[in-house]
Design brief:
The chain has 268 residues and is α/β, with parallel strands linked by helices. The protein has a single domain, classed as Rossmann fold, CATH 3.40.50. An 8-stranded mixed β-sheet has the order 1-2-4-3-5-6-7-8, sandwiched between helices. Helix 4 packs across helix 5. The chain is globular, with a radius of gyration of 17 Å.
């Protein structure tokens, strides 16, 4: 993984962590300790193989027989929380089979120290392996269109979404929500998917300079990306559990952008 050497994002699976990003994570954590109660629709727990392991995922399906396009949903450093599952359920209502992958093997953080520990215990190759296995599993399902699969992630999951696009050239569309960005052309040239990015201009970890460097690196390869920076938003602005940093108007706009993006690139 080739990231900007000036900083590393504690929402992604790497061993070095900058003070600025840890402060950013702490700001989110301070407001996220008490998650909002969520009533989730019915879902199916599935298991699929990866590197000799059995990986758990939560599967949501649209109404009808399909086949449908599909989306791999990748959680934040907290784990497979109700909020992430709700995003998967909402996307299923839009006409996608969605698979929320449990990268933490059933564990979920209740405080930032535990989140930090769980994230650091997740090697990048294992996480990417779980996600590529999720794509392979979706391709075996009769209710999935195997050539119309995308991915979305937030925070740590946003960084993993980009790494999945690098590792899995069959992906059609990837949405990165304030995830760590790669600028190495040798890695980025492996991406075949269309890429959407939503970022906060006040994010002290994934800065506007990082976003622009990523966009320029992609454009230099002839692969432009659709990125937007929200002027009054910081990190994790889409999650209402982030009491101090949630920006409902920006979150709603980012959600609309994502839905339009997936409709264009996975349904047409």
């Amino acid at each position: 993984m080739h990231l900007n050497p000036r900083r590393h994002d504690p929402w992604t699976p790497i061993s070095c962590f900058s003070i600025a990003l840890l402060l950013c994570a702490a700001l989110f954590a301070a407001g996220a300790a008490q998650a909002q109660a969520v009533t989730l629709p019915p879902a199916e727990t599935v298991h699929f193989p990866s590197q000799g392991e059995s990986v758990r995922g939560i599967l949501y399906k649209p109404a009808g027989a399909g086949p449908f396009p599909a989306i791999v949903v990748i959680h934040e450093w907290w784990g497979l929380t109700d909020w992430v599952q709700q995003q998967a359920a909402d996307l299923a209502q839009q006409g996608y089979v969605t698979l929320a992958v449990d990268l933490y093997r059933g564990q979920m953080a209740t405080d930032p120290e535990m989140a930090h520990e769980l994230m650091r215990g997740l090697p990048q190759d294992r996480g990417v392996g779980y996600l590529t296995a999720a794509v392979a599993y979706l391709k075996t399902r009769k209710d999935v269109l195997p050539h119309r699969i995308g991915a979305v992630g937030w925070c740590m999951g946003g960084g993993f979404a980009l790494q999945l696009a690098i590792a899995e050239p069959s992906l059609r569309a990837v949405a990165i929500n304030y995830g760590a960005l790669d600028t190495d052309p040798m890695q980025l040239k492996k991406i075949h998917a269309q890429v959407l990015g939503n970022f906060g201009a006040l994010d002290r970890g994934i800065t506007p300079e990082d976003v622009q460097a990523f966009a320029k690196a992609m454009q230099a390869l002839g692969h432009p990306v659709n990125v937007k920076e929200y002027a009054d938003a910081g990190h994790a602005f889409e999650n209402p559990n982030n009491k101090a940093g949630y920006r409902p108007d920006d979150a709603a706009d980012a959600n609309r952008r994502m839905r339009t993006f997936f409709a264009v690139h996975l349904k047409k």
